[in-house]
Task: inverse folding
């Protein structure tokens, strides 16, 4: 009777694993060391590139303008994203360490999601900056004053943190009794909640809400700002010169939003059908923008490129 009671209690109790298992590129374990070299190079370029951008903007008073202040916000966010994903990705490919505790996973996904929301907001502010600079240049300095820029930065920071803050607590209340193998080399809310054996309706609704209210809303407002910019540019003679100031931001927007939207679609509608595609899109979404943004802005911004060359010569 005692044995039957114990077995019944065990069967009725939902099992919560102590760890999650992260996923690398399956079937390529023999070349993990070579893959790790690629990731290390990407992280070095990202960290060094964004650090150089921040150093140049901070030390050069001529770059203390709204456009470059927003660029420094983008660089800080990209540094944060690189640091948030680096331990688990390099842990898998360098040390074959796939295990991550629940609490560590929840902390990582909080920082990844909050920083992603902040980056989306920064790109929106940069679009607003270009909109004011081109469509209303005479009021540019009076609209984007340092106090107002500071308030904008605080608002986007609070928005990102506030939207990501409930995620660990929504996941903490679940019991995880299914296979605990995540679909990425790092923790994401969508990936973790599918491991739960509880009702995830609330999480799914909130996940859709934050995607629509951040990536969806921000991308729509950026699109509207570019429509207004294009309309204004077509009415002036110096088309090329006006549009050249938007090229860097246009590239940064595409680098961030296209992989992000694609990853969300694959996670929701092709989770089991395209595992490799999902993993690769996850890498592109979180690793490529922090690496490419400093390169793009350094190449496309004449003033920034000149300051970087001058600093290297010294």
Result:
């Amino acid at each position: 009777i005692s044995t039957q009671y114990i077995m019944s209690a065990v069967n009725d109790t939902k099992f919560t694993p102590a760890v999650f298992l992260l996923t690398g590129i399956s079937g390529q374990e023999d070349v993990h060391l070579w893959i790790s070299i690629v990731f290390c190079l990407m992280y070095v370029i990202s960290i060094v590139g964004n650090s150089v951008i921040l150093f140049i903007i901070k030390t050069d008073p001529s770059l203390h303008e709204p456009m470059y202040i927003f660029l420094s916000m983008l660089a800080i966010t990209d540094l944060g994203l690189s640091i948030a994903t680096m331990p688990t990705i390099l842990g898998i490919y360098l040390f074959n360490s796939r295990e991550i505790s629940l609490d560590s996973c929840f902390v990582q996904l909080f920082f990844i999601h909050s920083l992603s929301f902040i980056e989306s907001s920064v790109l929106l502010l940069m679009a607003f900056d270009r909109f004011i600079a081109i469509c209303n240049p005479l009021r540019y300095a009076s609209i984007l004053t340092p106090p107002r820029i500071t308030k904008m930065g605080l608002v986007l920071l609070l928005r990102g943190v506030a939207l990501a803050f409930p995620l660990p607590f929504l996941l903490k209340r679940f019991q995880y009794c299914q296979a605990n193998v995540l679909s990425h080399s790092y923790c994401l809310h969508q990936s973790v909640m599918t491991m739960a054996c509880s009702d995830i309706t609330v999480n799914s609704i909130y996940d859709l809400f934050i995607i629509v209210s951040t990536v969806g809303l921000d991308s729509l407002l950026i699109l509207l700002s570019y429509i207004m910019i294009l309309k204004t540019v077509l009415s002036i003679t110096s088309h090329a010169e006006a549009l050249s100031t938007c090229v860097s931001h246009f590239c940064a927007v595409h680098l961030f939003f296209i992989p992000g939207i694609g990853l969300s679609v694959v996670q929701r509608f092709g989770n089991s059908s395209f595992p490799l595609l999902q993993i690769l899109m996850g890498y592109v979404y979180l690793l490529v923008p922090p690496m490419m943004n400093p390169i793009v802005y350094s190449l496309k911004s004449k003033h920034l490129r000149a300051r970087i060359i001058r600093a290297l010569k010294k």
Q: What stands out?
A: Strands lie at 19-21, 99-101. The first strand starts at residue 19 and ends at 21. The radius of gyration is 22 Å.
